[in-house]
Amino acid sequence: MAAPPAGLPSREFLMDIFQRVDKDRSGTITANELQVALSNGTWKPFNPETIRLMIAMFDKQNTGKINFEDFGHLWKYVTDWQNCFRSFDRDQSGNIDKNEFTTALTTFGYRLSEGTIDILMKKFDHYGKGTILFDDFIQACVMLLNLTNAFRQLDTDQDGTITIHYDQFLNIVFSTKV
Ligand SMILES: [Ca+2]
Ligand SMILES: [Ca+2]
Predict the structure, then answer these.
(1) How many angstroms is it from 31 CA to the middle of ligand 1?
(2) Angstrom distance (rounded) from CA 22 to CA 134
(3) Nearest bound ligand to CA 32?
(4) pTM recorded for the entire structure
């Protein structure tokens, strides 16, 4: 039996979780199965956009499903995000408020104005409570990362400014995986 990739638990451990998530025993995990698994213990359905994002990230064969070979990486991804989320949720309220979000963004290396942080809070605060939940936090961070990478590719001299045409702008917005 091949050794698990670095940082992953044993194959037995992962297989046990995989089989519990794969409710219909088809050998692959669909977006619906993943959503049910990640919503366990909460009353709110997991953000479907975040599910779509995660499936697309780890579905190497582009089938829209996750097989067991891809599952270890997905599992690690979710676990890493859970640890990240908990470490920024200073008051252990189970959500991220604006102060905690600001700290997270600074720690990730972003330098954003308060106005931009307010816009992000508003966009990802799906329940209008001034806080961001786990699934929306992942979506916010992944979107920010993807858009930042797209910007950086054009900002060849790294001065934080780019000049682009309207057509290029639309190209970035619609071709970036967000
Ligand atoms: Ca299945
Ligand atoms: Ca909190």
Answers:
(1) 9
(2) 22
(3) 1
(4) 0.83
